[in-house]
Amino acid sequence: MKVSIFSRFSLSGILLVTLVFLNLIPISAQSFVDINAGLPGVSNSSVTWGDYDNDMDIDVLICGETASGSTITKLYNNNSGVFTDSNIEFAGFG
Ligand SMILES: [Ca+2]
User: 27-48 burial, b for 16+ CB within 10 Å, e for fewer?
Assistant: First the structure.
């Protein structure tokens, strides 16, 4: 599975999204599909991938500021393309 992740913030302050796109066909064709991962939208964000539980699905760590202004640094478990909150949180960024 080839994936890309984007976090986007609307300057109007009403739209925060984190989207995961799956590339269904070879890179030369560039066909990306939003998998509706259900991840929290954040601004001032950073994401990174890693397989923390060694199940061969790449999980994602999201760090950023939510629409309410709080900060999160959370790990989301990927189970065959379905992301769930791992309930593992790290100290927020400053
Ligand atoms: Ca994993």
Answer: eeeeebeeeebebbbbbebebe
